Amino acid sequence: MRAGPQARARRGKRRAAERSVAALSIGTPVEPRNVNRRWDELRRRAGLDWLRLHDLRHGCATLLLAKGVPDRVIMEVLGHAEIGVTMNTYAHVLPVLRQEAADAMDELFGA
Q1: At 38, phi and psi to the nearest 5?
Q2: Residue 80 half-sphere exposure, CB side, CA atoms within 13 Å?
Q3: What are φ and ψ of residue 73, in 5° steps?
Q4: Is the predicted pLDDT of residue 108 greater than 80, yes or no?
Q5: Cys-Cys with 43: which of 8, 48, 64, 95 at CB 3.0–4.6 Å?
């Protein structure tokens, strides 16, 4: 026997919550507008009116790269399908990493 409309709706909400980054305690996905409202409230209280929610994503990726987390792991954390997207987006961090690598080689060989 086929499930009724209410059962299908509940099953659809569960599946959506399973694919979501965040879900409510009742298992339904968090509405994006509610996330944005809460973010706006938090950043205003912190005096960070200029900071966008998406800026946190960029900051996270930049800090992970700077700490030496493997590129592939960062790609997966960000949900990028290809490593090139991650590396092209965060290439500004690479000169710092190259300098750190050169300094490490100097340290190894006593230069």
Answers
A1: -65, -40
A2: 18
A3: -65, -45
A4: yes
A5: 48
Total count of domains within the chain: 1
**Residue 60 or residue 20, greater confidence:** 60
78 touches 57 (CB < 8 A): yes
The two three-digit tokens of residue 31, written as one number: 């509405």
The answer to whether position 96 is within a domain reads yes
Let me know if residue 97 belongs to a domain.
yes
Give domain status of residue 36, yes or no: no
Residues 86, 79: Cα–Cα separation, whole Å:
9
Q: Could you tell me if residue 17 is inside a domain?
A: no
pLDDT band, very low/low/confident/very high, at 15 (cuts 50, 70, 90): low
* Rounded distance between C-alpha atoms, residue 37 and residue 47, angstroms: 15
Residue 68, Ramachandran bin (φ over 0: left; ψ between -120 and 50: alpha; else beta): left
Pick 46 or 17 by higher pLDDT.
46
